[in-house]
Write a structure and sequence with these properties.
- Pfam families: AMP-binding, AMP-binding_C_3.
- The chain is of the alpha/beta class.
- It folds into three domains: 189 residues, ANL, N-terminal domain (Rossmann fold, 3-Layer(aba) Sandwich); 181 residues, Rossmann fold (3-Layer(aba) Sandwich), CATH 3.40.50.12780; 103 residues, ANL, C-terminal domain (GMP Synthetase, Chain A, domain 3), CATH 3.30.300.
- It contains 19 helices and 27 strands.
């Protein structure tokens, strides 16, 4: 059975890869989604037939080589079908978040020059139409649900198509052709379109195929939780994991995830650190309802688990105690994640080692990786047999990484973007002599494990001249169950203060006291204030659940000033 590793060298494009694998895999399940009250599967053969029909339908309606096409959809099989079909005919996909505002769509439509859009629902189509109206309208609007005045998705699927001819065509796509524009959410400023050619994402495929081969993922399930417009999910969940033989199951959302894990039995799940914070908070909240002796057993299981991770070595009788706690405590926690789980992978932001340590101590395999939209996007990842939770793992095969004299991590390889769309100056600043300057301060240890310390531009310089990492302090704060969100300030000030969003009904003050006990004098939080949650809707949170620090501090400037 092929697992997507043997043919990697001959593939030059993403549609070429998927259609070739579809010809080999036929009736094997590829995509699964919740429809009409149950899980419905799509085979590889059905996927390929749909891609050919949609490609023919789009061509018949004037979409061609080089056209940028907005793709706005929740995670559902139609997304990868449209994505693959667009790339197959030489168009450039512009995946866009369903949570985008009209203003967001206006910016992306204007910047990309997109004149066509494929949208999932009538509600989302209305926002895209409103944005497009400011720019002269669209030449083509396709909706997956029936929408008045739009081309129905079903009409594209009904288009007569020649799959063998399309396969012959995509086999000729050069690896350097632009595949998609991914607009970075960023923590400040207008999003920029990252130009990713096929070679960048195929470089990720080759690297991941090598490092994951011992995991034997062929035939296993991947629970897709992040939005498909997210750079990681677009590359890894949309193309790479299916190429390795995994069946992709689309989650119904955060509120259903806890029930889906034991039901779907995934081998892999990917999420942002915020999800791990929520999961830990739920576990601890449930524990509060248990009897004191059960809480003591749980705490002891975590303590001994951390000892096994970090030392000192367990004493002989503690090994016996640990084995008992494995059956009484850890297996019950592990059962919540299904019996086939190989890894919960965290990316998108720094995962606090204490947070990952909590799950690892309970036997839940949490791995941290690192990437950037500008790099395919996967740069490095820990593996179960070499999992250093204080790092983001070793760079993938084919990725060169080094730390510049000023501490900035720079990378080189086929995974690096072509540049930023319509932004030559920004491109020249980001890519210097083939090295991508990530903007992250990093460290490589003797075993080539990469640690990300902070954003290069995000260090706080206090009035006393001390340099403080806000990411470190914010990570420690949000690792406390009483704190949902945190942003710290102190640039040019005599000390550090914090804006906190407390967890519902929680006393954030106690959490601040605990965190201060682990911070140095210059890092300690002098004062804090509770503020309203940072959300995508109020513009203070990115679509990848990262606080927009600059905007948060601007929005709460008076509150910050009042704390000094």
């Amino acid at each position: 059975m092929r697992d997507g590793t043997e043919g990697a060298a001959r593939w030059t494009s993403l549609p070429g890869m998927l259609l070739q694998l579809a010809a080999e895999r036929g009736d094997r399940p590829m995509l699964t989604a919740w429809r009409d009250g149950g899980w419905q599967r799509m085979s590889w053969g059905q996927f390929a037939a749909a891609v050919a029909a949609v490609a023919a339908g789009l061509r018949a309606r004037g979409v061609g080589f080089g056209d940028r096409v907005l793709l706005v959809s929740e995670s559902r099989p139609e997304f990868p079908i449209a994505d693959t079909a667009l790339m197959a005919i030489g168009a450039v996909t512009v995946p866009t978040y369903t949570t985008n505002t009209v203003a967001d769509h206006v910016h992306i439509l204007r910047d990309s020059g997109a004149r066509a859009a494929v949208v999932s629902t009538t509600r989302l189509a209305a926002k895209v139409r409103e944005a497009a109206a400011e720019l002269g309208g669209l030449d083509l609007l396709v909706t997956m649900d029936a929408t008045e005045g739009a081309v129905p998705w079903a009409e594209l699927l009904a288009t007569p198509a020649d799959l063998p001819m399309l396969m012959a065509e995509v086999a000729q796509i050069p690896a350097g052709r632009l595949a998609c524009l991914i607009y970075t959410s960023g923590t400040g400023g207008a999003p920029r379109g990252v130009m990713l050619p096929h070679r960048a994402m195929l470089a990720n495929q080759r690297g991941l195929a090598v490092v994951t081969k011992p995991l034997k993922l062929d035939g296993e399930r991947y629970l897709s939780f992040l939005p498909l417009s997210h750079a990681y999910e677009h590359t890894v969940g949309n193309f790479l994991l299916p190429s390795l033989g995994m069946e992709v199951v689309y989650s119904r959302g955060a509120e259903k995830l806890a029930a889906e894990l034991p039901e779907v039995e995934p081998a892999l799940v990917t999420a942002v650190p915020r999800l791990f914070e929520v999961l830990r908070a739920r576990i601890l909240a449930g524990l509060e309802k248990e009897k004191p002796w059960k809480r003591r057993l749980f705490d002891r299981a975590v303590a001994l688990g951390l000892r096994r991770l970090d030392g000192p070595r367990l004493l002989p009788w503690e090994w016996v105690e640990d084995a008992v706690l494995e059956r009484l405590v850890r297996r019950k926690v592990q059962a919540r994640f299904g019996t086939r789980l190989v890894a919960l992978v965290s990316g998108g932001a720094r995962l606090d080692p204490d947070l990952s340590g909590f799950f690892l101590a309970l036997g839940v395999p949490v791995l941290q990786g690192y990437g950037q939209t500008e790099a395919g996007p996967v740069v490095s990842v820990n593996m179960p047999w070499d999992n250093d939770r204080r790092t983001v793992g070793q760079p993938l095969p084919g990725v060169e990484a080094r730390v510049a004299e000023d501490g900035e991590l720079v990378i080189r390889g086929e995974l690096v973007m072509d540049g930023y769309w319509n932004a030559p100056e920004a491109t020249a600043a980001a890519i210097v002599e083939d090295w991508l300057h990530t903007g992250d301060v990093g460290r490589l240890d003797g075993a080539n494990h990469l640690a990300i310390l902070d954003r290069k531009k995000d260090f706080i310089k206090t009035l006393g001249g001390d340099m403080v990492s806000p990411a470190r302090i914010e990570g420690l704060l949000m690792a406390e169950p009483e704190i949902a969100q945190a942003v710290v300030a102190g640039e040019g000030r005599p000390g550090i203060v914090a804006l906190l969003v407390p967890a519902e009904g929680a006393d954030a003050g106690k959490a601040v006291e605990r965190v201060n006990g682990r911070l140095s004098g210059i890092e300690r939080i002098r004062r804090w204030r509770a503020v309203e949650p940072f959300t995508v809707e109020n513009g203070l949170l990115t679509h990848t659940m990262k606080a927009r620090r600059k905007l948060v501090l601007q929005h709460h400037a008076e509150t910050v000033a009042a704390m000094y």
